[in-house]
Amino acid sequence: MNIDPELLGGIAGTLTPQLPDGPLDVATVRAIDDRRRATNPLPAPAVPPEVVRDGGVELRVHGTGRVCVLWIHGGGMYLGSARNEDAFCCDLAAELGVAVAAVDYRLAPEHPYPAALHDCRAALDWCASHHDRVVVAGASAGAGLAAALCLLNRDEQGPAIAAAHLYYPMLDDRETPSSRELADAPVWNRRLADVAWAAYLGGRPADGLAAPARATDLRGLPPTYLDTGDCDMFRDEDADYARRLEAAGVPTRFELVPGAVHAFEAIAPDAAISRATRARRLDALRRSLAEDFRTW
To answer: pLDDT value at position 295?
Structure first.
């Protein structure tokens, strides 16, 4: 792996260097993640969010405005929370001058598929009922849920989604060339991904809403921005999904970041590729939040 040298220091504090040998399970990974977060506490947001509960789903709403970003956090479907994203969402709302609503969806394996997706669907309904324009965005597993939400919303003829922004999305439960090549990738590897899919699917076979890479019809989806790193095990499933979106007539912008591992901008925010990626994402979000946006 030709990893950008500026990312190497950040990799040391991620999950993968701390994983034990042998089989993994959800409880083991959660315990490691809890210890890791205890030694590196998350920053507090500059302004606390408004906590909204609607139909059993909690949203943490940052900022105000007529337009909204629905943010879906990552964590392999079994880690993370909307609270952990408070500082990020607060900053994003301030930079864009819009509302950012982070959904605290239910986690697997306690709540397997489709619980998280249904929570995201309820969050979309709330956002659409309170704002004129909604963009759906997420990272990793959250980006996979965002992609699934767009598919479900299309099929159910739900409220309009102005655009989808997918950052290194988790889309495919099947093996791909990059998941084989990068099975031992830093930050997120094949072992963690296997735990994620087993927890999320709960023993059921995957369909195109559980694993959007399996969806056979991508027509009619909202314009989509997608980026991933070339040292990320999700590289090929992400690139293929972007290619298929474009072939289906969906306005698509795909960015492959050289030297980038999974979650690179989070683990090394001051790296040059992290700064450039954040600037590109903000520009893309501003474009898709504009009323006259139609294509990239």
So the answer is: 86
Q: In whole angstroms, what is the distance from residue 111 CA to residue 107 CA? A: 6
E-strand stretches of the chain: 50-54, 57-62, 67-72, 99-103, 133-139, 163-167, 224-229, 252-257
CATH class of 5-289: alpha beta
Where are the chain's structural domains?
A: 5-289
| Cβ within 8 Å of residue 27, ≥6 positions away | none
CA quadruple 40, 28, 18, 199: dihedral positive or negative?
A: negative
Phi-psi region of 63 (alpha: psi -120 to 50; beta: other; left: phi over 0): left
Per-residue model confidence as pLDDT tens digits over 136-162: 999 999 999 999 999 999 999 999 999
pTM of the model: 0.98
List, in order, residues 6 or more apart from 137 with CB less than 8 Å away. 69, 70, 71, 72, 143, 146, 164, 165, 166, 167, 285
Q: Which residue has the tokens 């083991």?
A: 28
CA-angle at 209, arms to 287 and 206, nearest 5°: 140
Cβ burial, residue 87 (10 Å; 0-12/13-18/19+): middle
| pLDDT of 110 | 98
67 secondary structure, DSSP code? E
Provide the annotated active-site residues: 140, 232, 262
Report strand pairing: 57-62 vs 99-103.
antiparallel
Low-confidence ranges of the chain (pLDDT < 70): none
pLDDT of 220: 98
